[in-house]
Amino acid sequence: MRRLADILGIDVASIHTMWLVRPENGLKPTTSAQLNEQVLKICRDFMQRQHLAGPSDIYDNTVVLFIQDTPLSSQMLAHAENLMACLEEEAFPVSFGFFTNQPDTSSVRKSFLLYQNHLKNARTLYPASAFLSQAELSFTADCAETIARGEAMVRQVTAPLEPLLHTDSTIQEDLLATLSVYLLDTQANVSRTAELLYLHKNTVKYRLHKINSLLGYLVTKMPESNQLYTALAVRRLLDGQ
Question: What sequence ranges are listed for the domain PucR C-terminal helix-turn-helix (predicted)?
Answer without folding.
Answer: 175-233
